[in-house]
Design brief:
Blueprint (H helix, E strand, L loop, with lengths): L2 H15 L14 H5 L25 E21 L10 E3 L2 E2 L5 E20 L3 E18 L4 H8 L1 H9 L6 E26 L2 E26 L5 E3 H15 L3 H9 L5 E21 L4 E8 L5 E6 L1 H4 L14 E3 L5 E8 L5 E10 L18 E11 L4 E11 L18 E11 L4 E12 L2 E5 L5 H26 L4 H19 L5 E19 L1
Parallel strand pairs: 2-6
Antiparallel strand pairs: 1-4, 1-20, 2-3, 4-5, 5-6, 6-7, 7-8, 7-9, 9-10, 9-11, 10-13, 11-12, 13-14, 14-15, 15-16, 16-17, 17-18, 18-20, 19-20
Helix pairs in contact: 1-3, 4-9, 5-6, 6-8, 8-9
Length: 536
């Protein structure tokens, strides 16, 4: 009888996962220079230590240092409906004390990360060089869904229709709930590269990145109620008591069955910390063909990540304690994919540099919990372009562009309103101010313009399937009760069997209900960057 409650709890947990995950966890924006030129694959700069580690070897001999901070402001929006976009169950709900205004609801999560630091340090000799990079390579903030998400609310919204079907009357005209969801994800990466000039024009690099993940998911769903025809909001069990008493009077054995059905609307709480680490091997090559052309490539191997859960409230609740993915002590697969970078820089004249490049993320080979990666149609790929112009000895201006295309396919089961990505185009611009021959200041801004993604579902987030498990359990118990009564030979047996038959038909009617739905997903992203670099 706990099936539906478990589904509700699982949805709450996963909804919090959407905080900064979005599904893909790789951050390639690692410094202020990226914000003003999104094509860094073949740049030779201390701030390109992450994107082009082999290019570090072509810096001037000596020490190079850079520090950047990015401030990111994001939103994630899901416009959702199920059963009917105009007259669906969402129109009957009260969430956090507010009446829903339509059958199609818009759920908005806000993610803020005012401080996303990164640091680069390099030492260059004639042939050898060493470089270190530290940054937030995944996640990078927290996201709040103050009014939950459609994937969860839809399950609560089904309670009135399920209750009415059991009661055979219009016992409930709506539902009410209190909810809040929040998640935080930070994947810190420390990267050490060593490189060697094979020739004066060819440099190769080897490196390792240690990744440490810290995540927290917190949320609750409480005070679930149904709205009576008189407008009162009452707990589900209270509303079902008259029906339970009526059935128990006719067939006493049905009392416990229906009491358990009402129990699925119990409060749900989650507070789960996740921690884990992994190692990323990195190889790179940079070839300075001549004064005009430079080409480079980098390959990052897959990072095997296993996040271990430490659950607080989730371990104490009878339903949440049984959640597989968020159980206390559980290790969850969350690999970062292998990535291939390639790029080129062309300088037609000394003051102008034009960049182009591309990335491939091997997401289908990065193991996720439950092998969710198998739901992808293809790999993620990106194309970048950018240009820089030295206006004078003191100022360099630049701009860049990047297009990102995810291998989701149509109506992808890899994503949901709880955790999603959308293909996009990003544009950035900014300037570098040369404060002296050895000190420079970078200021930049980039914005990501996301496409909408529509995910149509024949059974919205498995509502019918999930309630089907509950109803199948009810039918099994009712069938056993009917067999016992039939074998008893009591005088009340015919009347009791008629009640049971009527109840079974109501269960069949619920099972036959159609639950199509749709999520229209969208995101926004604005990032402001500032950084300083020093040579000494």
């Amino acid at each position: 009888m706990k099936t539906t409650r478990l589904v509700m709890a699982a949805t709450l947990a996963l909804a919090s996962t959407s905080a900064m995950a979005g599904g893909y966890l790789t951050n390639t924006n690692q410094n202020a220079a990226f914000g003003r030129n999104l094509s860094q694959e073949a740049m030779i700069d201390v701030m390109a230590t992450y994107a082009n580690p082999a290019g570090v070897g072509f810096l001037t001999p000596g020490w190079h240092f850079a520090f950047s901070n990015q401030s990111a402001f994001q939103t994630r929006t899901a416009e959702s409906w199920f059963v009917d976009p105009d007259r669906g169950p969402f129109a009957l709900g009260y969430v956090n004390g507010q009446k829903n205004t339509a059958a199609t609801k818009k759920y908005k999560g806000t993610a803020t990360a005012p401080v996303i630091p990164s640091l680069d340090l390099a030492y260059v000799q004639d042939r050898w060089s060493l470089a270190f990079h530290f940054g937030v390579v995944g996640g990078g903030g927290k996201c709040e869904f103050k009014d939950g998400l459609g994937s969860f609310e839809s399950k609560v919204a089904m309670l009135p229709s399920v209750m009415n079907a059991f009661a055979g009357t219009q016992a409930a005209t709506g539902y009410a709930m209190e909810t809040y969801m929040r998640g935080k994800q930070y994947y810190f990466g420390g990267q050490l590269n060593g490189s060697y000039k094979v020739t004066d024009n060819l440099n190769v690099a080897l490196g390792l990145r240690a990744v440490y993940a810290i995540c927290n998911y917190y949320g609750y769903v409480s005070d679930m109620k149904v709205v009576t025809p008189t407008g009162q909001q009452v707990p589900v069990k209270t509303a079902m008591d008259p029906m339970i008493m009526q059935l128990a009077t006719a067939v006493p054995q049905l009392a416990s069955v229906m009491t358990n059905v009402a129990g699925v609307a119990g409060d749900v709480n989650l507070n789960c910390d996740q921690k884990g680490w992994g190692i990323t091997p990195i190889i790179g090559v940079d070839w300075r063909i001549n004064d005009h052309w430079n080409v480079a490539a980098k390959y990052e191997f897959k990072t095997r990540m296993r996040l271990e859960n430490e659950s607080g409230e989730s371990a104490s609740g009878s339903a949440l304690a049984q959640l597989d993915e968020y159980a206390d002590g559980k290790k969850v697969a969350a690999d970062l994919p292998a990535i291939l970078y390639v790029g080129a820089q062309y300088s037609p004249i000394e003051k102008v540099r034009i960049n182009a490049g591309g990335h491939v993320y091997f997401d289908k080979q990065a193991t996720q919990y439950g092998h969710r990666e198998k739901e992808l149609d293809g790999q993620t790929w990106e194309i970048t372009a950018g240009a820089e112009y030295d206006i004078c000895d003191l100022v360099t201006v630049s701009a860049g562009w990047q297009t990102t295309n995810y291998g989701l396919g149509e109506n992808s089961r890899y994503i949901s309103d709880m955790s999603f990505v959308c293909s996009s185009n990003s544009v950035g611009l900014g300037a570098r101010f040369h404060l002296s021959k050895k000190v420079a200041l970078d200021v930049s801004y980039f914005k990501t313009l996301y496409q909408h993604y529509d995910k149509a579902q024949a059974d919205y987030n498995g509502i019918k399937a999930n309630f089907g498990d509950l109803l199948a359990d009810v039918k099994k118990q009712v069938k056993n009760i009917a067999q016992e009564i039939g074998q008893s030979g009591s005088e009340q047996a015919p009347q009791q069997l008629a009640v049971i038959k009527d109840l079974s038909e109501r269960v069949d009617n619920i099972s036959a209900a159609q639950t199509p739905g749709n999520d229209r997903l969208h995101r926004t992203n604005d990032v402001f960057c500032v950084g300083v670099s020093v040579s000494f």
